[in-house]
Design a protein that fits this description.
Distance between the termini: 33 Å
Helix content: 25-40%
Shape: globular
Mean pLDDT: 96
Bound molecules: flavin-adenine dinucleotide
Largest sheet: 5 strands, parallel
Strand order of the largest sheet: 7-16-8-9-12
Number of helices: 13
Length: about 475
Amino acid sequence: MAGILAAIKLKEAGLADFTVYEKADRLGGTWRENTYPGLSCDVPSHLYCYSFALNPGWSHLYSPGPEIEAYFERVAHDHGVVPHVRFGDEVTACVFVDGRWQLTTAGGVHDEVDVVIAATGVLHHPKYPDIRGLDSFGGAVFHSARWDHGVALDGARVGIIGTGSTAMQIVSAIVDRTGKLSLFQRTAQWVMPAVNPAYTPDEQTAFRQDPLLMEGLRDSVAQLFDHFSDGIVDSRSPEMAMIEKFCLDNLESSVSDPDLRERLRPDYRAACKRLIVSTDFYEAIQKPGAELVTDAIDGVEPGGVRTADGRLHELDVLVLATGFKVDAFVRPITVVGRGSVDLGQVWVDRPEAYLSISVPDFPNFFMLNGPNGPVGNFSLVEVAELQIGYIMQLIDRLRSGGGRQISATADAMARFESARVEAAKNTIWATGCRSWYLDDRGIPAAWPWPFRQFRSEMAEPAWEAYELRD
Ligand SMILES: Cc1cc2nc3c(=O)[nH]c(=O)nc-3n(C[C@H](O)[C@H](O)[C@H](O)COP(=O)(O)OP(=O)(O)OC[C@H]3O[C@@H](n4cnc5c(N)ncnc54)[C@H](O)[C@@H]3O)c2cc1C
């Protein structure tokens, strides 16, 4: 998504001499790698797409994963950027030497470039759980992002470890096919109720004939998300109280068995962890073939999962819906900046970047969806679009001859980071839950201000925050 976007914007700006490095053999990123049953976006499709390539053909309010993958591929083709992609080779190092970046790939290619845009993804490197005996499992075991479609699910006893958005989508999608489905829950989740109507052919025709209809829809969804962001960045706000009420009412009205309801009731505030948006998770987990397992996992054995109460949950298939290493960003690429500063060392405690985009002493190295950016149920497409608009202005500054190296100053970085950490303490993410939003200190690794403030920051760089050198 972000790499294609960067390519399109560079091309539009008349910068034809660029290469997109993609280690896989086709486009799609997240939407290529995740193929699990039930995969869908939980941001409405008319917002989860590029503003310059609205799509009248979205099938649903929240469209399924394969449709999203096809959309990104189509846009890349339509904008003529696919010939710029070098597939099947992984960038392993970017080293700044004599004012230019030297790129090395696993395939032995050495390229020299003026500017690097890192669009390496956020939820990209699967995280595997550390569970005793996992390797000894006798059935099929795989991570949700490496789904094994050769494994039969029909009538099988399937266990799912994890209760994030992915796990919930899988439960709803397969519960009617499996013989028995066991969901191993460490932490209960708040679930935001949703509906997912299909767009009718008439609606799709209307969108095609009058793109303003799509723009209007997109604007109204964006406004809703702005209210949502006002809520999550201020845990005492009325918007937050409303989000909590929706989730609480959903739990109370959807789960009839009082014991199950209590086991599904989180002991922290809604949206502290990434909210689950689901039309049917509660319905699915109440089906006769489904079981919510809340006893802690003691270990995995050839026959299944043993929980702390001594019970063996016999399984044929074990799905690890255990998320991603969210603090990797450009790593494991070796990135060495000006004065031989190693990004791995700069980030040894945790990743930081000025406005998520630039790191001091790493000139002309810009990130899309980099560290501490907006997270929390937003459209990362919208985020990346705002960021690329900003990055193009940094590149323009280089082109206009003001200097050949641009990066955030150390002072701007320090001031930004201390304000960000301070503001993060007021957010809902800091109200006492364990989540992938928190860094090693327990500080939310995210943009802690309203989303409209992100929009205005991205509108134009504050030039005093940047250092230009020849
Ligand atoms: C299951 C799931 C559901 C999601 N749902 C939503 C949602 O509802 N809304 C939302 O906004 N976001 C969602 N996301 C987040 C999603 O990752 C982003 O929205 C978006 O797809 C990120 O795009 P990207 O281009 O930044 O990264 P990616 O899609 O991860 O693409 C990165 C690309 O870089 C390539 N790459 C990485 N390193 C190298 C290297 N060293 N050399 C060469 N190539 C490399 C990868 O192969 C990949 O193709 C979801 C993520 C997952 C996993």
